[in-house]
Amino acid sequence: MTLAARVLLVGSLLLGGMVAVPAAAQEPAAEVDVVNVAFEPADVTIELGEVVRWTFVEGTHTVTADDGRFDSGTQTSNTTYDVTFNATGTFEYYCRIHSTPDGDRQNGTVTVVDQGEGPVDPEPTEPPATDPPSEPPTDGPLDGTDPVATALAWSARLPDGGATTAFVGTAGGFADSLASGTGQGLLDAPLLLTPRDTLDPRVADELQRLGVTRVIVLGLEAAVSTDVEQALGDVVETVERAGGPSRLETARAVADLVLSDTIPEVLLARAFGEGSAAFADSLGAGALGAAQGMPVLLVGDTVDDGLRTWLVEHGVERITIIGGTAAVPAAVEEDLAATHTVFRAEGPTRTATAASFIGAFPDSVGVAVVEGFGDTAWASGFAAALHAPGGLVLADGGRAALPGDTVEVLFRRGPVICGPTLTTDLCGQATAANGRTNLAEPLMAVMDVDQEVQTDPSTPAASGVARMWRSDAGADALCVDAEVWDLSGPIVAAHVHLAPPGEPGPVAVPVNLEPVAGQDGRVVGCTRGGDEQAAAVAALVADPAAHYLNVHTELNPAGEIRGQVFLPRATSFAALFGANEVPGPGHPDATGSFTLYDTGIADELCYAIEWEGLETPVVGAHIHAGSATESGGVVHPIALGVGSSSARCDGDVDPAVRQAILDDPAGHYANVHTEDFPDGAIRGQLT
């Protein structure tokens, strides 16, 4: 599933101050075709609350806001992407594949006016003063074994006298805290935890520090005893309970307490499960409920009568199910769809599910990164809801690298708020991802098997393209965003090495490359490494050509694909279509793209190619000399991988041929040949 599809599944949730809605919910006021290397029309004007629809007609593109507030992800032809704009101003966007925020190759604007008034610049949204970008506490992160301390670490972010209401749940389990996020957001009320039978004195002290006068106890006496309730009464003026016989009823009781009688939309999450799976999807949902003021309700394997009645009594129209069918069965969705509009927000993993919510939050405010694995991860995740106005994404403390889904979000959103149980290293990676700094252009590496010194004879024709950035988070930070194809197996390691082409060299900078769900082949990551890595990153930026990027697999532990690092001097692109063939005909439906990079090496051509919709085998591809109306001769062959996407650096190229292509890209075209179209199936002029 593409990123765009995941965003649309969230239904009518806010997307960075905007709304992404299914097409049936609202017709677009403006439509933009994404073709070749252009948006047509590039500039549109709509009224506040209206929809812009981008239709991907040709090639592979993205629709990405300059400030990151919306991003379609990588899309190919025959897909659409809708955004509803709920803020006035002029919003600039570009294609990440073919341009940059400051570029002029594939850029556009959406101007939003309020009922015919002139456009105004959108007011910047500043991060909340109580939630600045964070590193772990100076005395180190908590180990997460004490839920009381974990929740207190979150509430400590509030100033003295900073809350009049607080939720108090049991530290003995997560069940009754599952649905507290909405209340935290609506009442500006932190979640605190205490043992069932005793009011922890740390909690009493925190209630007094915050100036709390009202406490809402989550669950019945089996969760938090009457002794605790009485002890709370000695600290605050008012103590209430929101609870029921099970977590199902408690969630509905919380919603009844903090919301009005009519509730148009709810989030529906898994109620039961083994270990952390029982609450994993609710971590992100809690923050979403807090931001949107929508209740988080719970469901088992079937729709219970209490839930069915509650939905009717409260006039619920839309339900967004949180998680895949392993969490909330398809039978539940089918049952509810008979009487409600039902969406499902999901990802293949818990980290992808949390990341899929991010478009529903305002941008330029804090994104919380919390531990999402382990039986006590719920304490930090649920208590984070009040402190995550820009969304919540997950880390896995059992792994050295942040999940790719989390990194991809942080490339676009921030500032970062590290949870109290997040390790120092993972927090460092998170702040690096959010603070990545574009060079004049990102450093790049085009990787293939042939650049390796030695590989296993059975290695497929794997390849990849990587972009590298420094980060404002620190001089020791390096972030990588890459696409890799046809590897023999999962990536086990990656590094930037110091050596010229054809020679092995020592590791200069370790690189994390973790997959991004729904974006086949895309891997991302950031690393930090102190003073030693800072020196290595500085050397890489100063002399890219002296370094290479190496990707290791189990089959090839010394490296499966490798590419020398370079700062592109120029990039040429061709959108490939059958209609471009001369004399033709070409393939009527297939599309593709070809990108050529100028590495600055006189006898080298590096490139990437991809296509879709070609039914018969591709028998070859070439760069030809000729205008768009000519059939010209071959000047350079394009080496292909085993799949429909590949990249390569060719050495020993005739310098005169290379220079002719770079000097006059418009006088050259890329052509892909198949068995059915031996003279050319899809073709495109370089620009």
Automatic annotation (TrEMBL):
Gene3D superfamilies for the chain: Cupredoxins - blue copper proteins
Biased composition, class Pro residues, residue ranges: 121-139
Region described as Disordered: spans on this chain: 102-146
Signal peptide: 1-25
Family annotation (InterPro entries): Bact_Sporulation_Assoc, Cell_wall-bd_2, CHRD, Cupredoxin
Domain CHRD: 441-567, 570-687
Domain of life where this protein originates: Bacteria
Keywords of this entry: Signal
Pfam short name (any one): CHRD
PANTHER family in the record: GERMINATION-SPECIFIC N-ACETYLMURAMOYL-L-ALANINE AMIDASE, N-ACETYLMURAMOYL-L-ALANINE AMIDASE-RELATED
Name listed for the protein in its UniProt record: Alkaline phosphatase
Organism: Euzebya pacifica
